[in-house]
Amino acid sequence: MIQFPVSLKIWISVLYLFQVWFVFNSCVQPKKEFESVPLGPWRGVLLLDRSPVVKYGDDRDIKKNFDFDSELAFTFDIGKDSLDKLFVEFYNGSEKIRIYDVTMGKKTISSKDTLHIDFIEYDTYINAIYEDGIMEGKWIVNYKENYSVPFKAVFGQNHRFDHKTETSMFDISGKWKTTFQPGKQEEYPAIGDFTQEGNIVRGTFLTETGDYRFLDGNIIKNKLYLSAFDGAHAFLFVGKFTHKDSLIGSFRSGINYTEEWIAHKDESFTLSDPFQLTSKSSDNPLNFVFPNTENQMVSINDNKYKNKIKIVQIMGTWCPNCYDETVMLKDYFKTSPSDEVAWISLGFERYKEKEKSIKQLAAYKNKMGLTHEVLWAGYYKKEEAIKSIPQLSEIKSYPTLLIIDQQNKIRHIHTGFSGPATKEYTKFKSDFENLINSLKDEGKKR
Fold first, then answer.
1. Which of 22, 171, 232, 341 would suit a FRET pair with 335, their CA atoms being 20 to 30 Å apart?
2. Non-local CB neighbours of 267 within 8 Å, separated by 6+ positions
3. pTM summary value
4. CATH superfamily label, 174-265
5. pLDDT tens digits, 431-445
6. At the top level of CATH, which class does the domain 40-155 belong to?
7. What is the pLDDT of residue 36?
């Protein structure tokens, strides 16, 4: 038997281990780590009644019985811009909402690829784990205690409720007289205004205090499904045709709120004038002092507002109709700049704490690119909010717009807001400009 020196034995052992390592790594490729969520169309669902779906099989198919009555569906795209920055774009009818506050990374505990979508202006976010063309997670609302809704999404799908587009036997196009909470003390009127192409339906419900924004959905057999998700509110409307011109249905806002509604076609139906819904409790001039987003006290009597027309917006960062009104006002002051008119927003937030409220208002102001004063005026509950503006008989709706003359007296009050999803939007912009111009003319005659 040949005896090798000890040093040679060591080198032979090292050479053998190197050969084993080389062969093993030549044959076995390490699993490639996921680099990015797939770009393109996605179909998302908020599960209002049930837990997230379970994945079965190697192909990760979703096995479940479709139950659209409790599934709030929406569509979105994930993409990258010219600077290679990731974004998510949500679709509601003709509305497109592009969010750049998106991150993709590993979730520390599970080591799973996780997508985080932050709706900064609304203080909400989506957090979802991605795997094999499927996302599962939650939509979380920060200002509501322990509030989250299960969320799932599937890559490569861009239909809302039904992928078929053939013509339905029912036609919802036109105006519908609608009653929410029929027969109850909380009953209130609305107008459903819709267009239909095949079985695809778009439109909105307009109430006397605002609209439900851009609704999108389908008619499947004798049932209507409409939804909207914009990061602030999650709306699901389900209706059933009892006749070609009659509907009964339910409305769900998130996981906790449900209303019933009925509707029938009526092209002549109208709602009350929004300029007549809220009245003054006195003719005393407005006189308020509230902290701004830098925690500095601002008064309507400050020199920068002296002898000016003031637009005082009663709003909240949590309110989609307030968002629409803010966009409209921002556009107005951009296209019609004037030293004669000033804009002040009074924010009534869902946080009772001053620090949290001011922080959220500051984030909203920055995200919206606003240059006017946004003040924290108090808690959003209407019975508490009215204490901040005692010149009003009540606050019926967010938003409420006050048009104030040069002497700080309330001249016009507009309750609610009919946004760009409604036919009233263009008319209101014209009415608003006319009222401002009339106050300007009035001031010149003094």
1. 232
2. 174, 175
3. 0.84
4. Quinohemoprotein amine dehydrogenase alpha subunit, domain 2 (2.40.128.120)
5. 999 999 999 988 777
6. mainly beta
7. 73
